[in-house]
Amino acid sequence: MSAETILVLGATGASGVAFLKHVLPLSNGPNVSLLVRNRSKLPQELVTEYASKVRIVEGGLTDESKLDEVMDGVTSVVSFLGAYMSFYYLLTRYKPTPIADSFPLIKRVMKKHGVERLLALSTPAHSLPGEEYTWIQYITTMIFPPVVVPQGSAEMDAIGAICADENFEYTIFRVPHLSTGTGEERVYAGFYGPDFKGSQQLTRESLVRWVYTEIVQGDWVRKQPALGNY
Known about the structure:
The chain contains eight helices and ten strands. It is an alpha/beta fold and about 230 residues long. It has a single domain (about 5-230), classed as NAD(P)-binding Rossmann-like Domain (Rossmann fold), CATH 3.40.50. Strand 1, helix 1 (about 15-25) and strand 2 form a beta-alpha-beta unit. The mean pLDDT is about 95.
């Protein structure tokens, strides 16, 4: 059994569930620790079958005691937390960032438990200095998201900024539109510009395969690659 224990944040979302479906059946795969508001939203057959590899703590991101409990023995933290489209925020242009605001506490608890590895989902709305966009990339990443999903764009940008903390071995993986697939799709990781080979589509199954490989291999430590199928 792997010595790796991964705390998965956002485990009940589509990408979080896809991650569990990928890693739990692996014969030498990791143990997982899950912080969820409602354990009934987890894939019950899966977590029951691999119960020996799963620890579940019910609680919120701002509950320090629950974070302390779920962080015990963890070696890496991966966040699939993300904002959702809201008609209310579209109309009001209100941009709260509750997920990003929870990460200072999460990082403090990580430090308490000696956990250095942090991987967090963001989007191309979180741009990096020096990236040179083609006009299509600029429209789809810098113009469209802030206009159509202002709160979501602000949330994901803030998550990327807060988690790119040099006190941790972080990887911010910036994803485009997520879809379903087989998991066999190739993933390109790099930085936006004319030479970026990835599309503006990424299957969740190929995303979670890439994320787990990154946890194992660490090719993108302290970097913030954009991902896309190609």
